[in-house]
Amino acid sequence: MIKFKHIYFSYEDKEILKDINFEIKEKERVVLLGINGSGKSTILKIINGLIFPQKGEYFYKDIRIDKKALKNKEFNKIFRKEVAFLFQNPDSMIFNPTVYDEIAFSLRQFDFEDIDDRVKDIADKFGLYKYLNDSPFHLSGGEKQKLCLASLLVFEPKVLLLDEPTANLDPSGVGWLIDFLYDLDITTIITTHNLSLALELGNRGLVLSKNHNIIYDGDLEEFIKDERKLIEAGLVHIHKHRHKHLEHKHYHIHDWD
Ligand SMILES: Nc1ncnc2c1ncn2[C@@H]1O[C@H](COP(=O)(O)OP(=O)(O)OP(=O)(O)O)[C@@H](O)[C@H]1O
Ligand SMILES: [Mg+2]
Question: For the chain, which domains are there?
């Protein structure tokens, strides 16, 4: 469904992705791991057709996604309806006067007929019903994140790209999202650098190194057990333990965020 062939991407002279290759099949649950700045958000932006690689090819359902393909209005509409992207920062996605209009926006763009029913139904599922007439800018960070996710899922995309979706959520919100995603029967690609959460979000791990290439693609549980790979990815940290008469160091995989 999604294929990257020898993708290279740079911002000006900064090389962010180096020879990235992978293929994702329909309904796979992929977790994209890597330290800050490794290129996770950049990969999602390419998959969403927001930026284009300088070298290499990206195919969505065997169609090469480049500027020319997305200039075709008919294809652009289909692609935008099928591939949905939840940004790392929900504030950058919100722009409508009310929560209702925020959720309805894409439904109007995509010419849905049952807009009112869909908006109310998803608002109810996401605990946003009571805010429908309020300004989305007045919601809390976690509520904004839920609103952005509701605004995407309401048009039933086939691929959901989530960039650090748990960042603004409290523990009960994280639990809610994990259960919600588990029941979704679509292709999901989720970025995180939180290893303990990763296993709850998918079963295939795609791991970027600090050198911006892929160092692991496979079973996520196996990756998390592989200390050598974890160190290579920079996803473990070392710190000193100070006990009464003893000081020692070892690697940790626990997450502090
Ligand atoms: N528009 C831009 N112009 C220049 N450099 C950029 C731009 N966007 C991102 N970068 C740089 O590209 C690198 C990779 O960014 P990216 O956002 O893909 O990383 P990430 O893996 O998502 O990191 P994080 O875990 O912090 O979200 C970073 O060093 C970043 O500073
Ligand atoms: Mg990012």
Answer: 26-54+78-252 (3.40.50.300)
